[in-house]
Amino acid sequence: MSGDQVNSRGEAALIAALLAGDQEAFRTLVSKHNDTMLRVARSMLPGKGLAEEVVQETWLAVLQGLPRFEGRSSLKTWMFRILTNRGRTRSRKEGRTIPISALNEDDSSADAFDRVGMWRRPLNRWEGTPEKGAADRELGQAIEEAVAQLPERQRQVLTYRDMKGWTSVEVCNVMEISETNQRVLLHRARTKVRLALADYLEGRR
User: Fold this and answer.
1) Does the pTM exceed 0.70?
2) Which domains, ranges and CATH numbers included, belong to the chain?
3) Where are the alpha helices (DSSP H) in 43-167?
4) pLDDT tens for residues 81-95?
5) Which of 39, 64, 82, 155 could join 150 in a cystine, given CB atoms 3.0 to 4.6 angstroms apart?
6) What's 162's DSSP letter?
7) pLDDT at site 64
8) C-alpha dist (Å) from residue 205 to 46, 109, 130, 198
9) Which of 119, 137, 112 lies closest to 201 in space, CA to CA?
């Protein structure tokens, strides 16, 4: 039996449990995905409070819509598509710029930029010195500022791919974009962040 078949059967069992009102199954689902949902919502909305509201609305929509879920995509893809659509709608209503603080409230997301593979190394020259702690905090702030300046879709792709480690297929399915479009958005987002951090590091020398 292939891994896809095992996953498919496991998801079918989970959906059946959810439809039967199994609260433990729902708690497990929330525990698995809520943090990522919140991080994605915060990449789209101005403030943690609004992001939490959208995530709560998304979970309610998932419960209400589950009887109509047809399985044309994975349950995860379907849920995050709901989140993305609701986040987009709320973002248009708010019509405000995302504050930098919203990208890293109670979150060590800056560390996830190791997935990009090139921004922790330059700080090694401060290792073992009193300045290192301050330098790391400043770098984290520079990362937040760079990400905050990205257009929404670039910021969203970067969040899924580099902060949460999703595959390109998952991102394409959730955002309903082509692989080529996803690749272009990710490349542009990474490039802008790298350039911004290069300027920051250059200024510290």
Assistant:
1) no
2) 1-106 (1.10.1740.10), 108-205 (1.10.10.10)
3) 48-65, 75-94, 131-148, 152-158
4) 999 999 988 888 776
5) 155
6) I
7) 92
8) 33, 25, 17, 11
9) 119
